[in-house]
Amino acid sequence: MNLPPKVTDRAFARLSEIGAAAQGMALRVAVEGGGCSGFQYDIKLDTPAEDDIVLEGAGEKVLVDTVSLPFLTGATIDFTEELIGARFVIDNPNATSSCGCGTSFSI
């Protein structure tokens, strides 16, 4: 069974803090070819497209396009704050390896 990606309360809270929905925007999480491990995440604020999968919570939205969805099955989209910075992160059970920066992975 293919589980859709899950978005944590922290990620939705951060989107609310930056006012994404108030600006008519949502967080887009996409998977593209490239990066040092074969695939890379593209995470940005964007507007919804007709064929997007929309994950909603706390009045905010996270978008995943249908091409990226199989690569993100069962993944968790979170937000983290560390000494080196704050960012959205993806815990992807499909990734067999990833690079040190966390934005590139292989399946």
From TrEMBL:
Full protein name: Iron-sulfur cluster assembly accessory protein
InterPro entries according to UniProt: ATAP, ATAP_core_dom, FeS_cluster_insertion_CS, HesB-like_dom_sf
Chain segments annotated as coiled-coil in the UniProt record: none
A Pfam family recorded for this sequence: Fe-S_biosyn
GO biological process, alphabetically ordered: iron-sulfur cluster assembly
Protein species of origin: Thalassobius vesicularis
A single GO molecular function term of this UniProt record: iron ion binding
Domain Core: 6-102
